[in-house]
Amino acid sequence: MEKAKEEDEPTGTTHANATHANAGIFVRLKSNILNRDSMRDLEGDKMHVLVLFFLYILQGIPLGLIHSVPLVLGKKEVTYKEQAKFSISSYPFSMKLLWAPLVDSLYVARFGRRKSWLVPVQYIIGIMMLVTSQYVGQMLGDPEEGKDPSPPDVTSLTATFFILNFLAATQDVAVDGWALTMLKPKNVGYASTCNSVGQTTGWCLGYILFLTMEGAGLVTLGQFLLFWGIVFLVTTTLIAIFKHEKNTGEVIGGGEDISEEPSLGLVETYRVLWKIMRNPRIPVYSFFLLTHGIGYAAVEAMTSLKLVERGVGSAKGQDCPS
């Protein structure tokens, strides 16, 4: 009996291993089928997804730079009071709801409902980056040849990046709206993926990549702004010339048509927004959004500044405390 039992145990183990292996094969096969189905669904929208992804990357560049400037100012021993002043430049992205109805209701139909805002705004961002690249060194208080170094002009920096952030927020409203008609109705869900991944990628380029290169002495803020200003201008020109914006009600490939968008005037759009705000759940949700950061906001904002103050991330390793 014991010998028979010993002979049965390997058989049971073999069956368990076989079952596990078959389950693994089934999971991999199911995953491959889902991946093929997803790629099949994106037929005709792959280029649109890439365009949206790149537009969201551009949108994240100013956001990343806004977070990197305080660390650059920290190396110049700017007071925390002045750092707090610069934080005002990040407000527009949190307040875009106030002018989003304006972007949605005023447009030139012949040029395109979203392109009417996207193209001019991105041109302004590009031009502003090019102009700022020539003066940002002075605003940061970088020493010039034959002149004594001056303290950073935090007020001018705040105003400059406030405008850049305002323009980036307006671009976000236009791109979000365009995604609804650029993609097929069944693929609209990919717009949020492009938004989150693209904007985060842009933020990393403007924050992590810039600080890494700046700390290594490879690039200055002015040079970084100059490069991305050119990218903005070239990209916007290509979109203005080659990217057609589909009109609502237009039949697209595959027999799918774009659902008709409501064409509301400016006053009507704000009335709809006001009705939404009067929903009983909105004040509760707004209160949560306005207060949820109180517990960690100070730590999140001050940690990087304190690290720079202690020498972490300094271009000179000998400045770090032992």
Can you walk me through this structure?
Helix 5 runs antiparallel to helix 6. This protein starts with a helix and ends in a 13-residue tail after the last helix. The chain has helices at residues 2-41, 46-75, 80-86, 100-105, 115-139, 154-182, 190-215, 221-242, 266-277, 281-291, 297-309. The chain is 69% helix and 0% strand. The protein has 2 domains: 46-266, Growth Hormone, Chain: A; 279-322, no CATH class. It is globular and about 60 Å long. The protein has 322 residues and is an all-alpha fold.
Output the CATH topology of the largest domain: Growth Hormone, Chain: A
- Overall pLDDT metric: 80
Number of helices: 11
User: Could you say which overall geometry the principal axes of the C-alpha atoms support?
Assistant: globular
CATH class annotation of the largest domain: Mainly Alpha
Q: In CATH, what is the homologous superfamily of the largest domain?
A: MFS general substrate transporter like domains
Structural class: mainly alpha
Keywords:
322 residues, mainly alpha, 0% strand, disordered N terminus, disordered C terminus
